[in-house]
Design brief:
Layout (H helix, E strand, L loop, with lengths): L1 H7 L3 E4 L1 H4 L8 E4 L21 E7 L7 E6 H9 L12 E4 L7 H10 L4 E4 L2 H4 L2 H9 L5 E3 L2 H6 L3 H10 L4 E3 L2
Length: 178
Amino acid sequence: MKFMLDDAKPVVAVCTAGFGQRLDGLGVQVIEVDDPAIATQPADPLPEPEAANLAYLIYTSGTTGTPKAVAITHHNITELFAGLHPDLQPLPGQVWAQCHSHAFDVSVWEMWSALLHGGRLVIVPDEVTRSPTELLACWLMKVCGCYVRHPRRGMRCRPPIRLTEAGSTCGSRRCGGG
């Protein structure tokens, strides 16, 4: 965390109270979203971002062993969807499962597919993502209709006997792998 904060030099870190304490002494101003003082702030809308504005940084493992920040613009995010076949476009009302760590680039697809298209994002607990049985139950109960999974983990969730069963009950829901 210290490395990334020193490297990125953020103006502020926005987090919950439970996480804010972890940032003490790291030289960044913290805004806690559950702080009652936030309600006293003006509700003026912020200006719309430009396509070339930085949206976020994602850190790679770095070929030299030192993590490297990759700058992602708002335009980069919208380009995720520009070349998709119309049948694969995220749709309003879809419920997307977030099964990956925010530090993994596939999580970007999970988050923005839901949030940019009028969908809902369900953050699936780690213990569920690590259990093929629980993950399949989550899928079959239709808690989430859109699911992106790394092939290595996804294959553990689809033994042949269940693939047939899931195939007959999935309907138009989508499954992809990175």
